[in-house]
Amino acid sequence: MPQSLVQIRGLKKSFGSLRVLDGIDLDVAKGEAVCVIGPSGSGKTTLLRCINLLEPYDQGSIKVDGTEIGYEEGGSTRKRRSERALAPIRADIGMVFQLFNLFPHLTALENVMLGLTKVRGISKAEAKDRAGHWLNRVGLSDKLQSLPSQLSGGQQQRVGIARAVAMGPKVLLLDEITSALDPELVGEVLSVVQGLARDGMTMIVVTHEMTFARDVGSRIIFMDEGRVVIDGPSRDVLANASQNERLKSFLARIEMKH
Amino acid sequence: MIAYVMGVLPFLWQGLLVTLTVSALVVASSLVTGILCGIGLVYGRWWIAWPIRIYSDILRGTPLIVLIFLIIYGLPLLGVDFGNYGSAVIALTAFKTAHVAEIARGAIQSIHFGQTDAGKAIGLTFRQRLQYVILPQAVRRFLPPWINAVADAVKGSALVSLAGIVDLTLAVQQVIGRTYDPLPMYLLGAAMYFIINYSLSLTSRRLEARFAYIRE
Question: Domains in chain B, ordered, with CATH?
Fold first, then answer.
């Protein structure tokens, strides 16, 4: 197995007395697209948010490309990195959100350019080129000057993807990126993600789209009650779903919703 | 009558200038201190946020006139004397700071936390998130109540007349002291305050329209 780009060991996290992540171990290799599925409250989103420290965690370790992301190593003490030290680490981990979270006062182009100019320090002209390239790639070359409020949900989410990918992240985290969309808009967003996966972008995808998980994800992680219950190649996991009671009932419930 | 009004206008004009200068000083300095306190309330650690919270609650719960007298007559007893004019400006600024801090706090907190998440996710530092993401959006929620507060500051500045500073209000009273004809002078004074504050509220409406692109 190639060296893992994302390495998670013994990750634990509680909200008050509620344990949300209960010892997660996960390796993601470079170029792999891992789909994380599981019932609501199983800890999928929290896991994703821990990877770029939008959510602090209590125990365990998360390394991206060999760097312990949230906490400084060395000695026996565990010290949370300062916001200033975290910023460049987060810039290398792209994230796309369920509710898009575009900046409403900026145009599509400016949304993508902001990180390039302010974080990567790229000149305005070059950032504009690069942002234009990615917006073109997600099929929005005619919407560069539109504000988020002038775009459909699917278009907004594609801007969100362009904003994350333009930064050139080592890994891309996608948090239920189609669940806030009207059904007819889901396809346009998923095909963009499919393209990125083909190009070898390393991705961790929290999703309820089973066909997507089967066709695009090389691996499926099934989480329940804060633990990884099943971890295996997508087709195998779905083909043998009947052998695991919890996965079977989860899939049956998803099936009913669609 | 017109000749009479024309005669006292230069004197009232001097008073109006004092009112405008006091108001401008108070509005400008409380804008800076108030926004800093508002940011401290939202993002500060407890040793920053708590003192601001206590300050704001006490100041907003104190009558302005008590505060003015406290600074003019109380502080000199402790050996600190800013003079009447300085004390009045300081008292009004201290009072207004507490109000602006609350307006800024509300405006910042009204921005969805997803905006902070998105800013963090592309690697913006705290200062960059404030500068490029949070404050540009918060400004729209901030402006309408803040302009109200500015209008309040203009009206509140009339209290400095009680400290013997000849602003518009005291100028009007002094003219009445000579003519013994209060009604026309009070109406004239009220009209001058109204013109200032009405232009402020028109400005407010224009600014709101200017920032209308940020949808709720």
Answer: 2-126+139-185+197-209 (1.10.3720.10)
